[in-house]
Amino acid sequence: MRSGVLGVVLAGLTMSVSLTAAAPAPAVQQYYPGPGIYCFGYNECAPIAYSRQVFSDAELTNLIGEGSDTCVGSGSQIYISTPQLPSGFEVATPMYVCSSYGPYLPPEW
Questions:
Q1: Which among 109, 87, 83 has a CA at the least distance from the CA of 97?
Q2: 81 alpha carbon, distance to own chain's centre
Q3: I want to staple 38 with a disulfide (CB 3.0 to 4.6 A). Which of 20, 64, 96, 97 is the partner?
């Protein structure tokens, strides 16, 4: 009985060690932090400015508003200012990245 319990304990420890070893590194998150963000490298990310069009119908035939995001800097922080548009079916097209060096157009766009 003692060797059976010891075997179960060792199997559990082996399983927990193998599970923790297989966990992904948290640094992967920095390459794709989410929509609306573009990353230049390991941990230098910036917001994306969009051109926005709003339509009253799902077929996108009746345009009721349009506008463009602008880059705003405050200290070392950069963020996007989005125009107030009427509610409806919005189409957002990426224009450029608001980097700390100014507007940047990624080559893959």
A1: 109
A2: 17
A3: 97
Interval 43-91: pLDDT, tens:
788 999 999 999 999 999 999 999 999 999 988 889 999 999 999 999 9
Q: How many CB atoms lie within 10 A of CB 96?
A: 19
What's the structural domain count of the chain?
1
29 vs 86, higher pLDDT:
86
Q: Would residue 19 count as lying in a domain?
A: no
CA distance linking residue 57 with residue 36, whole number of Å: 24
Q: Is residue 46 part of a domain?
A: yes
In sequence order, what E strands does 1-109 have? 37-39, 45-55, 63-68, 70-74, 77-81, 89-99, 102-104
pTM of the predicted model, to two decimals? 0.66
Residue 31 tokens, joined: 């390459």
- Residues of the chain with pLDDT > 90: what percent? 44
In a domain, 9, yes or no: no
